[in-house]
Every structure is written in structure tokens, then in C-alpha cells.
Predict the structure.
Amino acid sequence: MELATNAYIELMNHQNDIRFDIIAITFTKNKNYNLNHIEDAFWPED
């Protein structure tokens, strides 16, 4: 994941602070879903 985040930052030429959240959506057998949002999941290394 670190490789992908660094590539994204370079591709977008992002110059400010950046954080990454993780959003997980899991579906149940009866067609419901659970949403889990992890804010500030990680910060890329300099």
C-alpha cells in the first residue's frame, strides 16, 4: 500500500499534508451491508 500511496502523491504532484482513510464495505447474505470508515488510517512517509 505504501508504494501505491507514494505513486499517487507523485502522480498528483501533491505538495501539502495528506492523509489516507480506509473505507470497508462488507455485505451480508441477506443483502445488507456494514460500512466501516477509519479516518486517518495512515500518513505516508516523507
About this structure: The longest strand covers residues 33-42.
